[in-house]
Amino acid sequence: MRIINAYYGPTVLDSIERKLSQGRGDRFDVGVGYARNLTGEVFERFGKALKSWLELDQGREFRLFIGDHRHPMDTPAQSKEKIETCTRVVAALSNYAPSVQERMEVVFLPRLHAKFYSMWSRGEPNDCLEWVIIGSSNLTDAALKEQNIELDIYLEAKDRPIQTIQQTLLAVIGSAYRDGDSWGELHDKIDELTAKTRWENDKLRSVAEWDAEMEAECQAEERREAEKQARLDSDRRLGITGSN
Questions:
Q1: So what's the pLDDT on residue 100?
Q2: Where are the domains of the chain?
Q3: Cα–Cα distance, 117 to 119 (Å, whole number)
Q4: Please, are residues 172 and 115 in contact by the beta-carbon 8 Å criterion?
Q5: CATH classification of 2-194, choosing from 3.30.870.10, 3.40.50.410, 3.40.190.10, 3.40.50.300?
Q6: CB 128 within 8 A of CB 166
Q7: 3-class SS at 133?
């Protein structure tokens, strides 16, 4: 267990990169009040680490919970700005790689202000917490690189406190998942921003599936020819002529 802070130790981004590179876990749950201004070096580092982790196992998932801070009293301009703030980074991550797009689920939750970065392994009766960062850091440049004075607690599976909090944290995340929105206006905006990449990924997937089918057919034909030749060779050894 350790504290992550601008005055002490590695940054949140350093910690996330290192843990994702170790390749553990099945589901990466991230919850933030805001995901914005994630550009340049920080975006590339986070995106690359996430992509590499997802591609190690086809069954892995990434769930991103983001605060929806729109208010009924917002002006149209304020509402538009909040929608763009909520969706721009998400769309960029979705466009980053097919593995991210296909296995990222985004949940918008009104008034979400919590910040957590948690890795889970599937288990019975409950999932197990591999590591977690809980504190003040949103998914922003300033927070991930400790340009703000943040304060986060980092726990690994070997730390005793993680056993105390993991079931409560799992329940909190489960409640957020049930109460949040997995579709709606914000998702429509993400779809709009990712339409081209989704079309390209679908096309690449179709080509890959076609190539796989053709390869399988070629292999099947080779097996049939090999079996036919084996029968002919066997017939010659036995002195059998002609065909049936």
A1: 94
A2: 2-194
A3: 7
A4: no
A5: 3.30.870.10
A6: yes
A7: strand
Q: Is the peptide bond before 125 cis (omega within 30 degrees of 0)?
A: yes
Measure the CA–CA gap between 160 and 26, rounded to whole angstroms: 21
pTM to 2 decimal places:
0.81
Which residue stretches of the chain are H helix? Answer: 12-21, 40-55, 76-96, 98-103, 141-144, 160-179, 185-238
Counted residue by residue, the chain has a size of 244
170-198 confidence digits (pLDDT tens): 999 999 999 999 888 899 998 988 888 87
- Render pLDDT for 115-132 as a digit per residue (tens, 0 to 9): 999 999 998 888 999 999
Give the SS3 label for residue 158.
coil
Nearest to 32 by CA among 190, 129, 163, 144: 144
Question: Bridge partners of 123?
Answer: none
